[in-house]
Amino acid sequence: MAAYSFQSFGRATPAARHAIPAEDAIALLKSGAAKDGSLLGYGNGRSYGDTCQNQAGSVVDMRPLNRVRAFNAETGVLEADAGVLLCDIIAHAAPHGFFPAVVPGTQFVTLGGAIANDVHGKNHHRRGTFGCHVESLTLLRSDGKTYRCSATSNARLFRATIGGMGLTGLILSASIRLMRVPSLDIVEKATPFGDLGEFFELTEAADQANEYAVAWIDQLAGGRGRGLLFTGNHAEHGLHAASRAGARLSVPLQPPFNVLNRPFLTAFNAAYRWKKGRSAAPRQVGYQGFFFPLDGVGDWNRLYGPKGLFQHQSVVPEGPARHAVPALLEAARRAGQGSFLTVLKRFGRVRSPALLSFPRPGFTLTLDFPNRGEKTLRLLAELDRITIEAGGAVNPYKDARMGAETFAASFPDWPRLEAVRDPAFMSDFWARTAKKLDERQGAAQAAE
């Protein structure tokens, strides 16, 4: 298998050195011969960092396991292989009036990846995370056994596998509950705000009145944090069949430099704000443009240049957010680094069943930056510091470089996942964070 096919979406970390087909990994696991740290499931490579990489072992190509096994058109419960893409689930369920209860910013993620990362969407305030809608999953571990896991059967494994970043074994299939919708189309409204204070005033009412809410921030707008608050609800009348998934445009070649420079970003932000914010009237839009706007441009991550990009997503509690979010934006401005896509939204209080889950009550800010080496790494470390001091957390599946201390502060329950991690499974992320913490704890205990 070609290594270039098994790269993270951020492309700031090395591509996988070794990859094996799912059928080979399944046979190896069933035989009980898988070596420690030798495997990691790989979906469609949409994680930005190294949670989907295992340089010391092999990644397992799950994409051929892509069957929708069953669908109940009355209840909306769908069972599918772990390698099925979200776009295929949408296409299968839409004619029956159902849609995934939670979708991330791309439809090109696998079912297994959505579970392993416990992804979230624009409606966390109402529906929680993806894991909240998982009925059951089938997990193959290196003891050779296949476990059917749910909230009532193998519950410990169930909770650890949701949000467990692929470390508890190989997810083979899952059953999820979809939600009934009147149509796929969205009635969208864009409300301009002049600064972050105005955004914070708007967001509570926006969440109460709408299924979906998310803000775009003009990160280069002189420190005020102006932007657009997008709200949406499924239209009563509209599209009932999924449109064909695929990019209308593409970036066919890798530019030799970062195209998304400051002059470009300034012009883009001005044009985007004018286009989207020129009318306050609600408008009916297609679901792909509302949920997955960047999916329309194939290989858009190439625009960041050959060194790739880093994405930083943080969440901070509601009270500190009013100081922390402006501080995060100001840190990026001071560093002279512009974020092409800056997204701010509010997480609600719907709890995930996951042992480790990134979303928690508060506000989450997402920034992405071209990889400019040490300069960018210093900025990301500063963003980590601001986040942790505000009592927040940094998102692992968007990360490619956070330190072990930042991870521990973000997820103090990490030892509980380590306790049920399948020894045959390891990722580069876990090796540089949790395993280092585990080794330090072991050394400290030995020295006592």
UniProtKB/TrEMBL annotation:
InterPro entries: FAD-bd_PCMH, FAD-bd_PCMH-like_sf, FAD-bd_PCMH_sub1, FAD-bd_PCMH_sub2, FAD_lactone_oxidase-like, Oxid_FAD_bind_N. The keyword Flavoprotein applies. The keyword Flavoprotein applies. This is FAD-binding oxidoreductase. It comes from the Bacteria. The lineage of its organism: Bacteria, Pseudomonadati, Pseudomonadota, Alphaproteobacteria, Hyphomicrobiales. It holds the Pfam family FAD_binding_4. Residues 9-181 form the FAD-binding PCMH-type domain. Keywords: FAD, Flavoprotein.
